[in-house]
Design goal:
- With 163 residues, this protein is an alpha/beta fold.
- It contains 5 helices and 4 strands, in the order E-H-E-H-E-H-H-E-H.
- Helix 1 links the parallel strand 1 and strand 2.
- The longest helix has 28 residues.
- The chain is globular, with a radius of gyration of 15 Å.
Length: 163
């Protein structure tokens, strides 16, 4: 059975596509393709149908990550098929928990940086959209730092599942 993870930010053109691309790379590196799937969405539909922000694509490409991305809005009906919904900041966390149809679905929603033991108290990945390129680089660094812990957690959940 495939373990499904969805990364969620505001418009699905900056933070969540970065997280999706990095996490997919970690899954591939770990030899877990076919066991773990990752995608992304936004809490809003402003950019639905758009490609990732060109700065997102540029930063990912320069660091060896690829992305073929089309923005979309997160739908509450997706909770039933997802194992984990990863919010990029506390605003997304609150919005997703409000959308969750059941208490079980509420428990699926987590903050990405909660998987980074060095993150400290501020678990938000700042929105790079209105910042310069350095904001996208900072976003990538935060995502990379949290991805190893997230993968370890998902791997534990996979081991706990009945065969």
């Amino acid at each position: 059975m495939v373990y499904r993870v969805c990364f969620v930010c505001t418009g699905n053109i900056c933070r969540s596509p970065i997280a999706e691309s990095v996490f997919r790379a970690r899954v591939t590196e770990a030899g877990l393709d076919g066991l773990i799937e990752a995608d992304s969405a936004g809490t809003g539909g402003w950019h639905e149908g758009d490609a990732a922000d060109p700065r997102t694509v540029s930063v990912l490409d320069e660091h060896g990550y690829g992305t073929e991305h089309t923005a979309r809005q997160f739908q509450p009906s997706w909770f039933g098929r997802l194992d984990l919904v990863i919010a990029l900041d506390t605003g997304h966390l609150k919005a997703l928990r409000r959308l969750a149809p059941t208490e079980e679905d509420v428990r699926k929603v987590r903050l990405l940086r909660s998987y980074d033991p060095s993150a400290g108290a501020d678990l938000d990945v700042p929105d790079p959209y209105y910042r310069g390129r350095d904001g996208f680089e900072e976003c990538l660094e935060m995502v990379e730092a949290a991805s190893a812990g997230l993968l370890d957690s998902v791997r534990e959940h996979l081991e706990e599942r009945p065969v």
